[in-house]
Please model this.
Amino acid sequence: MVNLSLSFPGGSLHAVAARHPDGSRPVLLLLHGGHGSWRHWRANIASLGAIADPIAIDLPGYGESDSPPAEISLAGYAGLIDTALQSLPPVAAVVGFSFGTLVATELGRQWRTNPHFRGVVLINPPLGPDVTREVLEILEEGVRETRRGGLEAGVAVTQRRIMIADPARVTDELIADAAEQVRRSRFKSRPLSRTIDIREQMRALSCPVHLLLGGQDPHQRSALAERVPQYRALVGADRVHLVEPAAHWLAFEYPEKVVEVVQQLLG
Model:
């Protein structure tokens, strides 16, 4: 893998790619979730590299990327990324995870006249104002455990109860890595993810949209009966993919499903 440093007004964006994209293959932009970094895609870069040129960025204010202005809209935030990517071949598709789905839809809106752009894949988007009671209770438990045993103890709660369905995969190494990503997070995504409705974002798009939803994701499961028909009406029944055993971090648990859906999008 190669590291890239891409400039935007007031700073730089850090990215990791399977190789330096040269325009000979579709460029695939990967956007992580809140409190994350490019490492949310570490199980996916190699497999996606077989069909495209994946680029996993640290969003502004996360990982090794510089921070955006303190007060910034979703459009302004996506605009920083768009500017940073100007030095690379045009992006063909965007895959967003959690908070990254909001950024993905905004980039899709901004790139609607780009002839190279083919669409977006949204993995377990936030529910906006409809955040579930189950998620709020888990986050509260995480805060309590952080106060008792430190950040790793709190992160262990969210990794086991939100992010990953199989507890055997939540190792000490994974918890330590996730805690380090939390420590390096400087941008607060919740004011956006809890107020912006992803359905309205999707309605503003003119490109194909695929959704990947985890049946065991506490963000999704209590809302699936209501949301899945709505999503199917918005994007088409064949573009809504329910992975019943997956929790929130679906791309880590089922990387092969991500490849399958990206292949559908790229044709």
The longest strand covers residues 2-8. The radius of gyration is 17 Å. The chain is about 40% helix and 15% strand.
